Fold each of these.
Amino acid sequence: MENPILFYEPEAPYGYLSNFARFPINDGAVTWKTVEHFYQAQKFNNPNIVAQIHHARTPADAYALGKQYDEQVRTDWHQRKEAVMRDALQMKFTQNHAIGHWLVATRPHTLTEHSFKDDYWGDGGDGHGKNRLGHLLMNLRQELSITPPYNLIHFIESANLPTDWGIFNMHGFEDPDTGVEHVALTFGHWKEEESVLIRLHSECLTGDALFSKRCDCGSQLRRAFQNIAQAGTGAILYLRQEGRGIGLLNKIRAYHLQDQGADTVEANEALGFAADLRQYDFCRGILHYLNINKVKLMTNNPRKVKALREVGINVVERVAIQEGQNVFNERYLSVKATKLGHMLDVISPV
Ligand SMILES: Nc1nc2c(ncn2[C@@H]2O[C@H](COP(=O)(O)OP(=O)(O)OP(=O)(O)O)[C@@H](O)[C@H]2O)c(=O)[nH]1
Ligand SMILES: [Zn+2]
């Protein structure tokens, strides 16, 4: 393992790894403010003590109560505590989606609770301690890293992205199988049970960045930003699937054939590609990270709706996004409608 990540204070870097970090856990019956509240309460059979710890305002108060009633700790606690801690960490990192992906992203570093006060769960401050918390976290990290949806995409980092439509949050991801980088842009906040307005936008350098009129992508991207800003919440998953998955240079080869009369499907096929090579499975990992369970999908492409549902994404509504129709892309749009099933009110070319 490479150089250790030392964690302790919840407010410090990697503080989310601390049992004092404010991530609630639900044990099926009760919601606990933090892992510390849950862990301290499991020491006792006395319901009054358990209730006092459950209502403790802070994890430090919960810890203090655990100490205060030390002589009433259950007799089998020493044998049970590791299993209790393991359950608590499992709940914390799977019920709070983003930190589960953050934990996986700490690989391959050693995780060490750098605590001068605790040489069982921590390292004792000078490394003589057992660091059992660090070891349980690394075991859980290994488990999650091979489990969907954590293994479908790797979260890398987030940053702010000021745009013409407001300040979005940008989240970078990497496909563990292909190394392809993807981006999600989020605006506002939502609860897991809400349906969120999203756009799965396939990268189109020509349309998104070079103001091309050969397609509708750039106009659709701008409209997606506008719709989300107006709605107050939403997300754009910007997927590096240039050319419906054949890449930029092959798309230029396809455009070259289209300049000679082929349509957008015939050109792909003439190059030996299917009409649409895009896969969406990894999107499940991105949406899980973003705590999005139900989506209102901005698209004209029913095949995309079907493809997302097939990989387990709950599309509750399709929101039309017809933008940017012009003389240069009329034929392209009408072929998408007739051959690729797009739902477009296309003015058929003369
Ligand atoms: N191979 C190929 N790709 C194209 C062509 N025109 C646009 N694209 C790519 O198609 C992708 C966008 O797909 P679209 O069919 O426009 O739209 P969609 O994402 O399937 O459906 P919507 O969600 O309604 O936009 C981008 O990756 C573009 O680079 C083309 O003529 N040939
Ligand atoms: Zn395009």
Note: The longest strand covers residues 154-163.
Amino acid sequence: MNDSLVIGGTSLESRLVLGTGKFPDRHLIPRVIAESKAQVVTVALRRVNLANPEDNVLSYIPEGVVVMPNTSGARCAEEAVRIARLARAAGCGNWVKIEIVPDQVYLMPDNQETLRATEILVKEGFVVLPYVLPDLVIGRKLQDAGAAAVMPLGAPIGSNRGLKTAELIRMLVEELEVPIIVDAGIGRPSEAAAAMEMGCAAVLVNTAVATAGDPVGMARAFALAVEAGRRAFLAGLGPVREYAEASSPLTGFLAELEQGT
Ligand SMILES: CC(=O)[C@@H](O)[C@H](O)COP(=O)(O)O
């Protein structure tokens, strides 16, 4: 079965996107990527150090994996655009995850500034994946602006709190045509599976893997969960009912017994 996810003209078999921050040891990164089978990883441009390969996160990303620089640290559209241009000039390709976060307590994204940055960067030929607070109105505008996907948060970045925004994400999945990738807050493989069962195209996970007791083992667990959730979505989940419904209806012998004949 061909069930590839196509983003920016690139065909992906894996629907798990990984973040590369917070790992206790950078040497874990290539092992985690291999075990998760992720084909796209996001890196913060501020962690790209071209002058020192040992300190450069890009040195730990296996060949063939799509690098999606993110604009973390940006507080407005102009800063995000500048980071994206720098990343492309540094050889990081033309994918970019727009992350514009003026709030330092909950790390909530600024949806309006994100839309502005998307409009600018799409025109400059970037494959733009904006990270947003789930909102159908802004989702439609991002899609119209040419975003390659929309990435709503499930819960605050790094919180591991799960799909707190599930009902809002569901609206995006139902109404938008671009892929919906849940980004941030997913703390457990079961939550990744739930997002996929809902019809999300992929999930982006960082903290839950990087801070696990065994990050490599957790990467594998997420890969399996994402695949299970996707298969469940494609198979079509059965209806949810208010009341019980017997699995085996009364027929023949049992029906006669019931009537006392
Ligand atoms: C690396 C990255 O982009 C994260 O900021 C992303 O939003 C993932 O969030 P979690 O760390 O909560 O998985």
Note: Residues 19, 21, 42, 70, 157-158, 183-186, 204-208 surround 1-deoxy-D-xylulose-5-phosphate (CB under 6 Å).
